[in-house]
Structure formats: C-alpha cells, structure tokens
Amino acid sequence: MIKTIQEQDGWVKVQLEGEIYFEEASIIREKLIKYAESGCVYFDFDFSNVTSLDSSGLGVLTAIYKRAAQHNGRVKISNPQGPVKEIFEFTKLDSLFEVEEN
Q1: Would 25 disulfide with which of 56, 67, 72, 96, CB 3.0-4.6 Å?
Q2: How far apart are CA 82 and CA 67, in angstroms?
Q3: Looking at the predicted structure, is the pLDDT value of residue 48 above 80?
Q4: If DSSP codes are grouped into helix, strand and coil, which group holds residue 13?
Q5: In 1-102, where does DSSP find H-type helix?
Q6: Alpha-carbon gap, residue 67 to 72, rounded angstroms
C-alpha cells in the first residue's frame, strides 16, 4: 500500500508499506501512471516497510521502469528488507532497478 507520494527535486518519491499483492498493485499502478503520463520519469520507491511482494507488484514496478526508460528516466528501489530483498535478487530485477540500501 502507498503510505506517501511526494514530488521532490524532479523525483516521485513513493513510500510503500505492508504487503504488495494484486489489489494493492492495481491501486499503485493507477496512482503512478498519472505521474508518468504527466512527464515524470524519475521514481524512487522506499521499500523499508514492505513485508511481502508478489508478481503483480513486480509487474507494476517493471511497467513504471519501461515507461521511465523510454524517456531516459530512472527507477530506484530503496531499502528492500528480508524476503522482499530476496525476491529482487532471485528474479534478477536488482540488476534492472537501481537498488540502494541505506
């Protein structure tokens, strides 16, 4: 679920929390596509409070990445923890997204 969304220094900073499954992923997609359609191409997702993530959540991130990459944008994944970090590593998406651990 989205805790906050802020535009700061050209970046859309998205703080997520809890479990990101199909229903939550649909809501996230709906809210973030508006930013992408308005020209935003830099996204930073804070995963420090996300406890689980499924393929629909990964699909949303990948869709945002593809849209941003078409316009030389970037997508960062900040502070993935435990099983969520392992999902990024297992799927090799940690090599697609910029993964930062603070």
Answers
A1: 56
A2: 28
A3: yes
A4: strand
A5: 22-37, 55-69, 82-90
A6: 9
